[in-house]
Amino acid sequence: MRNLALAALLLATAASPALAQKVAPILTTPEARDVLTNARPAEARVTHVDLDLDVDFDSRTIGGTATLNVLAAKGAKEIVLDAVDLKIAAITDEKGNKLPHAIGPNGSALTIQLNGAKKIRIDYRSGPNASALQWLTPEQTLGKAKPFLFSQGQAINNRSWIPTQDSPGIRQTWRATVRVPEGLIAVMSARAETPAGIPVAGGKRAFRFVMDNPVPPYLIAIAAGDLKFKPIGPRSGVWSEPGMLDAAVAEFGDVEKMIDAAQALYGPYRWGRYDMLVLPPSFPYGGMENPNLTFLTPTLLTGDRSNTDVVAHELAHSWSGNLVTNATWADGWLNEGFTTYFENRIMESLYGKERAAIYSDLDYAGMVRDVKNAGGETAKSTRLHGDPGDGAGQLDYLKGSTFLRTIEYTVGRAKWDVYLKGYFDRYAFQPQTSAGFLADLRKHLIKGDKALEAKLQLDRWVFEPGIPSNAVHVKSATLAQVDAMLAAFNAGGPASAIKTEGWQTQQWKRLLDGLPRQQSAARLRELDDALGLTRSTNAYIQSAWFDLAIANRYDPIVPALEEYLTRVGRNLLVTPLYRGLKAQGDWGMPIAQRIFDKAKPGYHPVTVVAVTRILG
Ligand code: BES
Ligand code: ZN
């Protein structure tokens, strides 16, 4: 049974129909409790956030006011927000009366006495080391002329610049007015009401944004810099620094087709525009599904559209993640596993079965590898529903997508697609849990069919470690060809027999990840000479090659490795290399320390934290 507390889905606020807001339900079942928030939403929760902010590049802070609409249960006296290192100047109700508040006990719970207020106004400023924000100097940008700022909210970073209830199960509509220095453009993850901005006092330019759909607050995002826009199609376009805009438009030219394909599969795109923002290379992820404005790493720009799976992925999050959202980070697979599956279906629609099979095959192989690395079939960290942050490797993505593919193959695609489309409708703009998904699946797809229930092994997939026996392994003929060349090389054959012409990123990955970790210096040199690995400009190839070279203490790559690690800050392509260097003790640690010292000022806080954790 789903327990919808406090609210109807479309509850209009009494004041004025023009201000009518959608108030999304929260879940109050025990498995929906978010241990990473201080909020107690069943008592009092935020339903809307109105931001009025100045971006200050000198002090590297964002400050102004956040006005929150509060929905409080009868008798609730206080509301608890999440706030990390925020300097609070004042908190008042809508009439300007001061509201008593306290921070503590863990430094991130902001408790405010409501005194009957329905709206509270917080006057505040972010700290200079806000974990969501990266402030780049002009020298750290492509254009070298203007500074740049961007945010990364997922999972719990937004509490470092927005005082609200920072939990994925507490959806909020929001609006923002943001002022940046004249000459810069501000963008956010919402509808832009003033794309070019409006000049205002103090040599600044103001930008207004509106998000009418209730969203989990990790999806509020901002960027500001020397940004330009070019359209791709009627609903889509790209923002980036001027110097890479044309390359980005060319690389992501298939996005309109992707939107069409996604809608044909699982129902309407409910967000209006789908634009993309290409960030500087320090952006810590491949992509981030910020609504209306996916954030992307520039390492996708390889000129051959071979990394547009990331766009398909972030677009798919417009359903799995942004529309139906994991209620807690312990169910992150509901976002990432569903999205990886959906991404694959979009790729199949656009590029055919074989291209999709490449990704499915890589998902399966990655799942097997991650389970093995986590300690095998019984390792708790290999469960889909686990402790937040405890998941091994990429299993939310790989085991999650393989699970859904297994359901698809078991019940048949036609039936499964009808089910999944219905699922997105039933839970649109709502939080979801593993238990909630399984209950829905049983109600709408399995419908008491005992044989089917037994075949699917649902509880094993979701709550138990390891890989269930019914896991479907889709195999790719393209990758089988790579495997054959790999086997020949591993049997002592020459590197020159590996024919890489026309290869896309995924084939390179299969080859490089498939080489046994133990290689002689002579064999590594032979590979490098034949395949031009060290001088590759494809970040995926570089990362996989450096990983192998590091495992063998292969010195010749060190200068290229240093150049790479001081330029690229994408977590997934960077942290494995630091981990590899650390594993090489007296050879690797000094290299890692030296490069990290140099690279650190250019990394986003998320990457700094990740690398610091590895190097200790
Ligand atoms: N939502 C994730 C990024 C993320 C994950 C941010 C966890 C914070 C915590 C995004 O959709 C994603 O999965 N990005 C991937 C690319 C994807 C194609 C696998 C990435 O960054 O590599
Ligand atoms: Zn994702």
TrEMBL record:
GO terms for biological process: proteolysis. Pfam families: Leuk-A4-hydro_C, Peptidase_M1, Peptidase_M1_N. One of its GO terms (cellular component) is cytoplasm. Its EC number is 3.4.11.2. CDD domains: M1_LTA4H. It is found in: Cytoplasm. It is an enzyme of class 3 (hydrolase). Zn(2+) binds at residues 313, 317, 336. Its cofactor is Zn(2+). The keyword Lipid metabolism does not apply. SMART domains: Leuk-A4-hydro_C. GO terms for molecular function: alanyl aminopeptidase activity; metallopeptidase activity; zinc ion binding. Residues 478-615 form the Peptidase M1 leukotriene A4 hydrolase/aminopeptidase C-terminal domain. Binds 1 zinc ion per subunit. It catalyses: Release of an N-terminal amino acid, Xaa-|-Yaa- from a peptide, amide or arylamide. Xaa is preferably Ala, but may be most amino acids including Pro (slow action). When a terminal hydrophobic residue is followed by a prolyl residue, the two may be released as an intact Xaa-Pro dipeptide. The active site is at residues 314, 397. Belongs to the peptidase M1 family. PANTHER family: LEUKOTRIENE A-4 HYDROLASE (PTHR45726). This is Aminopeptidase N. It comes from Sphingomonas koreensis.
